[in-house]
What does this fold into?
Amino acid sequence: MMNLVTMAKVVRTVDGEWKSTLAEEILERWGYDRGTVFYYRASSNFLFVFKKAGKRYFLRFSDSNEKAYSQIESEMNILEYLRDQPICVALPVRSNNGNLIECIEADIGTYYAVVFEALPGKQLEIEELEEDDFHAWGNHLGRLHKIFKEMPAEYRSGRKDVQDQLDDVFKNIPDYETAALKEFDAIKHWVGALGRSNENFGVIHYDFELDNLIWQDGEIGILDFDDCMNNWFVADIAYALRDILKTRDDMENPFVNAFIAGYQSETQIDQLLVKELPMFIRMHNLFTFVSLLRIIDVPESMDLSEGLINLKEKLKQYIEKYRNSFSS
It folds into this structure.
């Protein structure tokens, strides 16, 4: 998620009908049906839904101070590779200039924008899933990882490595966060003992949760490769199943077993690393904790909307939850 100061600049352009002149200005590069551009959400990027010739699309853009052009470019390269693979993903759409990424110099900042096709189908909540659905969920992640394992090495070079992420995390943990620093030391020691191979380590999605999946007729479409990075493949499983994997005892949950069985129907899995799923969740929790500290780091004098004030308070609660988990 982006810093709240960055978020506030764009949110201020959204009116009471969820329309934004900034979003419409950006979409001039692609074209759109007038009156169809609406604010959808803001997290690590700004997202707007719109129609062009009656067809539904999504506009995604980010502040240049939050995200490097090269990071988005490497994501687009991976998606272009996946275009020809046996898997359904939300694909980028070229602008009228023939570009997958457009750079927009607006009055309030510089933004990098992309447009994606909207996938048909619906999103599901975890309470709606049966064992067969968990099997399908795992199957599609296994299929994606199988493709990533066979993907040429040059596609990996533009994505961050988990070690880089750990280095960034350490630099951004304040000295007074003693529990988080202790947790970092434990995670660093644990990571140092893990082996890497082409079968257990490579590009992963790293946000393979239900919010980024579209279900239709037994197939699952995948959204949002913004967080993809070089990490252990098991880390993708850990993040996907984090809501039902609270302790090592949960490894025997039939839903977890169904997910892993579905995964194994497409590609191999390192069984030793599967036993480390709870540790991979701890590592992601530490990443999230440090990210949240940065997000809410705004001047006290900053004039935030009521919605962003409420969001800040909610994020503070998450921070405290993670902080307490490090101490337990």
Q: What stands out?
A: The chain has a mean pLDDT of 95. Residues 306-327 form the longest helix (22 residues).
